[in-house]
Write a structure and sequence with these properties.
The structure holds 2 protein chains of 2 kinds. By secondary structure, chain A is mainly α. Chain A is built from 13 helices and 2 strands. Chain B is mainly alpha-helical. The chains are: A mainly alpha, B mainly alpha. Chain B: This is NADH-quinone oxidoreductase subunit J.
Chain lengths: 360, 203
């Protein structure tokens, strides 16, 4: 069941053969996600800077356009007009390929994100595994940039990024397993639907969202913090720690190749916010399972949740000092990994007890 | 039609990148070609309807194993001329391996042509409706439970072995004492003084 099935039908009605109708509908579906996403990235960068400025008691971007709304577009134009500088010692092909990989990986995950009931580009049954697979590819953009730049700071940054992302992916994997066990499916729409109506029998109206589940709430926290580490946002931005590594893996990049990193990074941040919302906070469902709230389209609830999490991301960035590298590794391996493993154990034990009963 | 095109695309890329893995002079390029081969193999798995295996291939091999390969290879200082000097010495072993692999392919294709095996018949038939995660899960935790648990044990032993082999106590490191760092309060660390001009502070 996909959103673009009606679109395929429409094209068929115009007399196209099924294959071409499907092809056109898919392309349009992809553009319908990717183009607004680019706009969203431009606006979210503005929002990020505004929130950050407000917390530092500054005014933030306020010159270009009304309230500085066009700042990101001005920046984009500036980068677009700059010269692309490729260091002479760099490995040219890989140097240019790396930002493309980051950007592509940041986009492809959106194929399985449900925006509303049934509104998803590709409603596959291994949706969450696809998300995990695509996010595990993200590290290549950074490693390759670091290596291909042939420069020491980017290389340090690449090594840090590889260790950091691989470490946190382990605990993210366990968190996702806990969610999948609870929902009984890898399909993201099914995971959202499984969050409908918690405690309806006690409260009268159910609450939508896994966060209210005591077995999954700690996982929601672990996932939120891990997603900060996975997107290399503060306080885990050791890969681009400007006091140590200049600009990390982006040091040698300029103009559009730099812009691709920028866009990819923020697209990843929005994606992680979306995953937080989808996996633990009910995705496109309203917060309470109460009929009048369903008159508001699901996509608006999803956007509200994404914005909320983005605000949290900015808030953390503005207030929490950067971790030391050993603290980062300690948090990932010694705290999150055992904790998430323990909760996988708890969740699966609870589900077995519910379905099978205690062993005799 | 599109499946056939996709199959030949993925298959050709797998073979080409596998060849480039062993032909490329730069070890980092070799690992990258290997990753390309893994990735396209995952595409082939998808075409075969094994979406779970495809995703696992990408997550485990591309996302974790190959990252570590790349990590290690990037830090090695490999002189390829030196490595190539060994080619003649190991040529006989290499040739024997190649002959064995080629013979296996010939035998397999021959057996298939002779109609000796029916590829459609499976040891554990599944219906088309069951998603393949469920199908694999049902088999792994019933029929192949022992083998599955044994594989798990082997991996656990390998993991413990790797840790034991690389773990060593070093006396000359400064360890972070997290408890002490967290317990530390501002009043233990900061002293407010109001020195008169020219006096300075007693430390």
């Amino acid at each position: 069941m996909s959103a673009y099935l009606p679109m395929t039908d429409a094209f068929e009605w115009f007399g196209l053969p099924y294959g071409w109708a499907w092809f056109l509908a898919t392309i349009i579906g992809i553009l319908l996600i990717a183009l607004p996403l680019m706009l969203a990235v431009a606006m979210i960068i503005y929002v990020d800077r505004k929130i950050w400025a407000a917390m530092a008691l500054r005014r933030g971007p306020n010159v270009v356009g009304p309230w500085g709304l066009l700042q990101s577009f001005a920046d984009g134009l500036k980068v677009f007009l700059q010269e692309t500088i490729i260091p002479s010692a760099a490995n040219k092909i890989l140097f240019l390929l790396a930002p493309i990989i980051t950007f592509t990986v940041a986009l492809i995950v959106w194929a399985v994100v449900p925006f509303d009931a049934g509104v998803v580009l590709s409603d596959i049954n291994v949706g969450l595994l696809y998300v995990l697979a695509a996010s595990s590819l993200g590290v290549y953009g950074i490693i390759l940039a670091g290596w291909a730049s042939n420069s020491k700071y980017p290389f340090y940054s690449a090594i840090r990024a590889a260790a950091q992302m691989v470490s946190y992916e382990v605990s993210i994997g366990f968190v996702l397993i806990a969610v999948v066990l609870w929902a009984g499916s890898f399909n993201l729409s099914a995971i959202v639907e499984a969050q409908r109506g918690y405690y309806a029998e006690f409260l009268g109206v159910g609450i939508n969202g896994n966060f209210i589940n005591p077995l999954l709430f700690p996982m929601a926290i672990v996932f939120f913090i891990s997603s900060l580490a996975e997107t290399q946002r503060a306080p885990f931005d050791l890969t681009e720690a400007e006091s140590e590594l200049v600009a990390g893996y982006q040091t040698e990049y300029s103009s559009m190749s730099f812009a691709l990193y920028w866009l990819g990074e923020y697209a990843n941040v929005i994606l992680m916010c979306t995953l937080n919302a989808t996996l633990f906070w009910g995705g496109y469902l309203p917060p309470i399972d109460w009929a009048p709230l369903y008159y508001v389209p699901g996509i608006l609830w999803l956007f509200a949740k994404i914005l909320f999490f983005f605000f949290c991301f900015s808030w953390v960035k503005a207030t929490v000092p950067r971790y030391r590298y050993d603290q980062l590794m300690r948090l990932g391996w010694k705290i999150f990994l055992p904790l998430s493993l323990f909760f996988v154990f708890l969740v699966s034990g609870f589900l077995m007890w519910q379905r099978v009963g205690l062993p005799a | 039609m599109i499946q056939v095109l996709a199959f030949y695309l993925f298959a050709a890329v797998v073979i080409a990148s596998a060849a480039l893995t062993i032909l490329s002079r730069n070890p980092v390029h070799a690992v990258l070609w290997l990753i390309m081969a893994f990735f396209n193999a995952a595409g082939l798995m998808l075409l075969a309807g094994a979406e779970f295996i495809a995703m696992l291939l990408v997550i485990v091999y591309v996302g974790a194993v190959a990252v570590l390969f790349l990590f290690v290879v990037m830090m090695l200082d490999i002189d390829f001329a030196e490595l190539r000097a060994g080619v003649v010495r190991y040529a006989a072993v290499g040739a024997a391996l190649a002959v064995a692999l080629a013979a296996e392919i010939v035998i397999a294709v021959g057996a298939w042509q002779a109609g000796g095996l029916s590829l459609g018949r499976r040891l554990a038939p599944v219906d088309a409706e069951t998603p393949n995660i469920e199908a694999i899960g049902k088999l792994l935790y019933s029929r192949y439970l022992l083998a599955f648990e044994a594989a798990g044990l082997v991996l656990l032993v390998a993991m413990i072995g790797a840790i034991v082999l690389t773990h060593r106590q070093r006396g000359d490191v400064h360890r972070q004492k997290v408890g002490r760092q967290v317990r530390r309060r501002a009043k233990d660390a900061v002293r407010k003084t109001n020195p008169t001009v020219g006096q300075g502070v007693e430390l």
